[in-house]
Amino acid sequence: MAKNRKIDMVILGLLSHESLTGYDIKKRIDGAIRFFWKGSYGSIYPALAAMETQGLVTRAAETDSDGGSCGREKTAYAITDNGRQALLRWLNDGKASNDMKYETLLKLFFGGSADIATSIDNIQRFGVEIRDELRLLRVYQDNLSGTIGDKEHLHYYLTVTFGIETYEAYLRWCAEAIQTLTDAERQ
Amino acid sequence: MAKNRKIDMVILGLLSHESLTGYDIKKRIDGAIRFFWKGSYGSIYPALAAMETQGLVTRAAETDSDGGSCGREKTAYAITDNGRQALLRWLNDGKASNDMKYETLLKLFFGGSADIATSIDNIQRFGVEIRDELRLLRVYQDNLSGTIGDKEHLHYYLTVTFGIETYEAYLRWCAEAIQTLTDAERQ
DNA sequence: AAATGATATATCTGTTTGATATATCTGTAT
DNA sequence: ATACAGATATATCAAACAGATATATCATTT
Predict the structure, then answer these.
(1) How far apart are CA A124 and CA A130, in angstroms?
(2) Does residue A61 lie within 7 Å of nucleic acid chain C, judged by its CB?
(3) A77: alpha, beta or left? (left if phi > 0; alpha if psi -120 to 50)
(4) What is the pLDDT of residues B5-31, one digit of tens each?
(5) Is B100 within 8 Å of A100 when comparing Cβ atoms?
(6) Of B108, B118, B165, B107, nearest to B141 (Cα)?
């Protein structure tokens, strides 16, 4: 049987707050979640269909937003009780795979085959990206800092501080690594 | 055509130092590389076959180690000049995708649906894993610290310091997050 | 001689990515 | 009004990938 689909839990987690369409789910994943997970339409829509069959989600009422005339086709999904149980089982199963795929580090690992200037350039590009993301994370942090009395917001907040502290460490490393390589370049 | 296979560059990078079998390649990936990339047999063997067709790698001589009698079947691959060029093009193309898939953070993000004790437990498990990995990285660091005058070793060294500084940041965050959640649990 | 565990190659199933196709709706400029 | 750009929405496909498993050989111990 199936049951190795991690995306299921992302979807159930999002639906535990509100009913959403596949498109909405993709937008949520591309928001605050993208710092530690990602998902594509190619996994979201099939997962929704499979979970509907399994009774973990159902199609929610399809009113168009303003109750106006015949709105466009739009399928929102809602979580079921079975879905909530599945989500809780996952939260409590004590297992978690944590994997990076950092192409920048891969390029650095094999950077001995190229010029040192290439490695410096690759690290600099990485640093620019991280700086941009860090700026965004700090906006998230500011927006959340008033409401961490709420249990849910506190959990969001902790994932944001994880991102911030991690990215700050990246930037410190970038500076050191560039310095080290620059020194090596000058012999 | 194909050409979105990132694993190709891992394999070419490894083969640029020495000829290796698919099994050897897997072992290398599970070594120092696993901190920022991973690969499975299901991607390695097909990639080797495809790259042989493309002329990026060739089958190397298949002697059994001691020149003894008829050794067991064993297919080592060597990089070609075209392979080296492909590796260099990749190192210099200025593109890199850097993505995490951290299930622990996902569980924390949706942790509002469970007990705070569950979140604390999930963070603690993460911390234990990271502490173990960090110990290993420090061994790598010690082994390399004498030879960073060598350009290749210097590059390895920088990927190790990336891991160390990142993991140290994780551990600081773990301690803070557990403290925050413990306080919240007590109200 | 038998058992065990490491080495070695390969394949299979299911999942996921990344790209693309199709179409509708909304706001804006002409 | 209308044309258009850009956002919304659903869906699908090929290629890439993970994780598990099957098979077999070799080296070492028992």
Answers:
(1) 10
(2) no
(3) beta
(4) 999 999 999 999 999 999 999 999 999
(5) yes
(6) B165
Site from B162, B174, B178 to mutate, A interface, most A CB atoms within 10 angstroms: B162
- What's the pLDDT band for A130 if we cut at 50, 70, 90? very high
Q: Which residues of B11-31 are buried (b: 16+ CB within 10 A; e: fewer)?
A: bbbbbbeebbbbebbbebbee
- With CB atoms and an 8 Å threshold, state whether A37 touches B88: no
Q: What pLDDT is stored for residue B68 in this prediction?
A: 37
User: In chain B, which residues have pLDDT < 70?
Assistant: 1-3, 61-73
| Contact yes or no for B10/B84 (Cβ under 8 A) | no
Which of B99, B112, B161 faces A151 most closely, judged by CB atoms? Answer: B112
- Name the residue among A10, A99, A110 with its Cβ closest to that of B87: A110
Q: Chain A partners of B106 at a C-beta cutoff of 8 Å?
A: 6, 9-10, 13, 33, 36-37
Residue A74: which pLDDT band, with cuts at 50, 70 and 90? confident
Query: Would you place residue A114 in the very low, low, confident or very high pLDDT band (cuts 50, 70, 90)?
Result: very high
DSSP lists the bridge partners of residue B106 as none
Chain D positions with an atom below 7 A of a protein C-beta are 8-21, 25-26
